[in-house]
């Protein structure tokens, strides 16, 4: 008892620098459901710019109680004794019932030390045993017998771990290389080349035009060529692989009226040999492009429709040897300053013929699932997924991620079965097929169950391409998860030095050093931008990493110094720590204030550009148009997020219903940033802050730039409509976050 009293005294009388809230161990009782754990320098990270205003003080402001004088008679003593006994009995029964109720409803709370152990040092089986599971099939393209065999092995493992399993079958249309014949290129009067790589969803046919070197094919690369007054109509663009997806390269080339695109791996970026083939897709989207917005279930009847993201120009990959051979023969002007290498851009005489004969086929694919059910909020779940298919060896793209997925399932199942760990929420483990065609399996699942998933899925953790090197670490995620990611980086140790990942890779400014934008070719992207589910993807990488599209075991070992097992373990711990935090804690560790900074940044840019257009092109935007309403909507979100953050700090963690209501409000944020004004067929990635399309705040900024320069593509009326829609999307998100309808008032 003395030790218990001493511990309670320290909890309530000491004032720590910052706090983290956890459940108490089961053997501690009383009104002590909130504990402050000292974590130096975490205050600003946890409470943001409000500083001490959001900090809960456990110092008592009450005056000490002074006993009243009374007559010490036998009668009074009897009454006192009876009162004490009565109070003790009532207190004991109340404590017993509360403790019993905790055991039944909230028994998912191991001690802080247990949680640190569980999330920071998840046990792993021998890596060789894990690798044998995944690498028995030399050919595991989507829909192939090898892909199905691997799926059966995954589901067998899930069943061995005592998990409930199921499969999700889809019939999807994909584009494969010609079964008979070939794709070909002929440069000038040289010999005919037959590349074995291909780009799914390219247009078919033949194109003939002059070669134009376009660096990485980014928008700024084409802008530099435009500034040089170079004619790009009907040119065949020669583009280096890397920096952006194949689909984005082709879409950018189509905007400048190119006739075809050739993509090659430059040896500066990918030291993989002259004859290595590249595979990929050029659908500017995800999922089956022939059922946009709909799931590709069997026998479904939809009108003939195609995704707006399908290209209308030819696209083909070529090898390093083919690309460098063409570059050496190009004439024309010298490339712009800042582009790597010493290359000519090409002139009108550098003619090439490109022929693409890909064929459209239908494939049956299966997604495989296993679930560890939660003990309190079983209908809320964290999804962890990895693709298992690959065009080539795919060691980095699919094998490592699928191995870590299966091992995480085993480890956490073992914690539940043997260590008494009881997660509040469920964990869904997903093995996707057809990931190489543009996250087809994952997107079709989202399309099939969107109304349920957007309400109940807490977050998605992506395990694709998690090891492509060892010298760097990158994370792409929803801003809601940034604080949780930072805390996780502190917990997981590096494979090279005896310190945390944060100390190794983000010592100074972790956000600029580690965070990166979420790429469209990541399976996490449709979860976030299409479904409104907070998502995270991460990877160990090297400066000149071997691309996950064609990586072999040998190549990956060469860029990781044979540290693949150690890196996979760290990757599993990073993903596992995030997942366990999201399924264990009473209140979701999501930082609502992170979006304030992003929204304000866009609002400032838009307001500045509106004023510039009104000054330079007054006939396009009247003076009556201001950014006032957008500023007000931004302010509404800022105020409501601060109020909810304060509610979270003052909440009763033992009130299960209150915790669920707060968590549901938190979960509305991401999906309410999906614009309700655009069709998922035309613009599937509807997120106004992190999505893609004319409805996004970034697109509004670009539209204002076009208006400022009097570009013929600019449309002032369209801009005003999009501005109004974006403004009300932010305001509606704030209204939803405020909670009940009677909580709204003129201040909001």
From TrEMBL:
GO terms for cellular component: external side of plasma membrane; melanosome. Belongs to the peptidase M28 family. M28B subfamily. Residues 367-496 form the Peptidase M28 domain. It comes from the Eukaryota. The chain crosses the membrane at residues 77-98. It comes from Haplochromis burtoni (Burton's mouthbrooder). This is Transferrin receptor protein 1. One of its GO terms (biological process) is transferrin transport. Keywords: Cell membrane, Disulfide bond, Endocytosis, Glycoprotein, Lipoprotein, Membrane, Palmitate, Phosphoprotein, Receptor, Signal-anchor, Transmembrane, Transmembrane helix. Homodimer; disulfide-linked. InterPro entries: PA_dom_sf, PA_domain, Peptidase_M28, Peptidase_M28B, TFR-like_dimer_dom, TFR-like_dimer_dom_sf, TfR1/2_PA. It is found in: Cell membrane; Melanosome. One of its GO terms (molecular function) is transferrin receptor activity. Stearoylated. Cellular uptake of iron occurs via receptor-mediated endocytosis of ligand-occupied transferrin receptor into specialized endosomes. Endosomal acidification leads to iron release. The apotransferrin-receptor complex is then recycled to the cell surface with a return to neutral pH and the concomitant loss of affinity of apotransferrin for its receptor. Transferrin receptor is necessary for development of erythrocytes and the nervous system. Acts as a lipid sensor that regulates mitochondrial fusion by regulating activation of the JNK pathway. Pfam families: PA, Peptidase_M28, TFR_dimer. Residues 655-737 form the Transferrin receptor-like dimerisation domain. Residues 197-269 form the PA domain. It is a single-pass type II membrane protein. The keyword Metal-binding does not apply.
